[in-house]
Design brief:
Strand content: 5-15%
Radius of gyration: 20 Å
Number of helices: 18
Shape: globular
Strand order of the largest sheet: 1-4-5-6-7-8-9
Number of strands: 9
Order of helices and strands: HHHHHEHEEHHHEHHHEHHEHEHEHEH
Structural class: alpha/beta
Distance between the termini: 18 Å
CATH architecture: Alpha-Beta Barrel
Bound molecules: coproporphyrinogen III
Number of domains: 1
Oligomer: single chain
CATH topology: TIM Barrel
Length: about 350
């Protein structure tokens, strides 16, 4: 329902752009809002400059610098939402895991969590004590931003894979071995991560996050029957614990097309989609929920006209959605030219009716 004439809502949006939040709630908007997963990061020379002076973990723990890099894609690329600059694994460190980032490799946990004794050593931390820099970043950002701020955490299953494997993995041997040979231990680990994530996301909401996204980057390696037992119930528990804050929750299960009907039962208001599914088909399956997605991040490399045409088609495919937030189907790749991201943002705004 349109409460005010279009010219007036546009003026209000120019002062405080709430288009993203409206789309999350399935309300009518003047145009389709867009943000990009991993929008603050290495593809931006401005990020590289900040990162040149500090390590990634130092950056994550410095609120002033986190604010600076969070704002970069808003100012440079005109995104309709900001995502807190941090990492899903910061919480694992707060739980007591030793976390390192190795150049060219990614995250490394030198001590893995594969037995009772190591899992027992993990704590359920008070987020205001162990990650005050995250809450401070959120408070500072809310003073600066004219677009909504998204907080986030990793889904327990995805976080567990990093702790069990000791970093990124291709086959997930250790994770699946634990699931199938020591399910009780696996559930114990998931319980601890879930309890920690609940406190962490609640603290982010209290600090001022206006929406929360749960990243399940590795959900797609699971069979639906295993996703139902080993991953989904924990996401449902987290989302239930956040209902009191009355802010939109986005659940993004990467490579999750085959898990879509299950993901809809997560309790999330918005279902994040990777690029492997047609968004129109997904819209038919999610009922009265908003969708977020889902252009292939590499499609940003298309020549301008082809990129605009592809975006137009995607917008059209999603036209029956109860709220559509345009996004990539996964994070923006580090070698993407920023000008191409800008072409995509402008195309979404123009073609959807701005
Ligand atoms: O702009 C934003 O989206 C906010 C910041 C953000 C980062 N990581 C910054 C980051 C967010 C939301 C994340 C989430 C994250 N982190 C996920 C889920 C999303 C996804 O991509 O599936 C995962 C799995 C991680 C763990 C992680 N962090 C990996 C595997 C890596 C290394 C690989 C890579 O892509 O670089 C990181 C490092 C990381 N996180 C960087 C950034 C900007 C690069 C660090 C650098 O500057 O060297």
């Amino acid at each position: 329902m349109q409460l005010y004439p279009k010219e007036i809502t546009k003026k209000i949006d120019d002062i405080m752009n709430e288009t993203f939040l409206k789309a999350c709630r399935g309300e009518k908007t003047n145009y389709t809002p867009i943000w990009m997963m991993r929008q603050a990061g290495r593809y931006l020379p401005e990020y590289q400059k900040v990162r040149g002076n500090v390590t990634f973990l130092e950056l994550c723990k410095s609120p002033e610098l986190c604010v600076e890099v969070t704002l970069q894609p808003i100012d440079l690329l005109n995104m309709d939402a900001a995502i807190l600059f941090s990492d899903i694994l910061i919480l694992m460190e707060a739980m007591g895991a030793t976390l390192e980032f190795h150049e060219g490799v990614g995250p490394v946990f030198p001590k893995t969590f594969r037995d009772e004794e190591s899992v027992d050593r993990l704590r359920v931390p008070d987020p205001d004590d162990t990650t005050p820099f995250v809450m401070e970043t959120i408070r500072l950002l809310r003073k600066e931003l004219k677009v909504p701020l998204i907080g986030f955490a990793g889904a327990p299953f995805t976080c567990a894979t990093y702790l069990i494997e000791g970093g990124s993995s291709k086959v997930f041997w250790e994770t699946k071995k634990m699931m199938f040979t020591s399910p009780e231990l696996f559930h114990k680990l998931m319980d601890k991560i879930t309890e920690s994530t609940i406190l962490y996301l609640q603290a982010q909401a209290r600090a001022g996050a206006q929406a929360l996204q749960i990243f399940d980057s590795w959900a797609g390696i699971l069979a639906p029957c295993d996703f139902s037992v080993f991953a989904l119930p924990y996401v449902q528990k987290i989302i239930k614990s956040l209902q009191q804050f009355d802010i939109p929750i986005i659940y993004f299960a990467n490579n999750g097309a085959t898990l879509l009907d299950l993901s809809v039962t997560s309790g999330a208001d918005v279902i994040g989609l990777d690029w492997r599914i047609n968004i129109g088909d997904a819209v038919k399956r999610v009922g009265k929920k908003a969708v977020q997605g889902n252009i292939d991040p590499f499609a940003l490399l298309l020549p301008k006209d082809a990129l605009r045409e592809r975006i137009g088609r995607l917008l059209d495919d999603a036209k029956d959605a109860h709220g559509h937030i345009f996004n990539l189907g996964h994070g923006i790749h580090q070698f993407t030219p920023p000008e191409q991201a800008r072409i995509a943002v402008d195309a979404v705004h123009e073609l959807s009716g701005r």
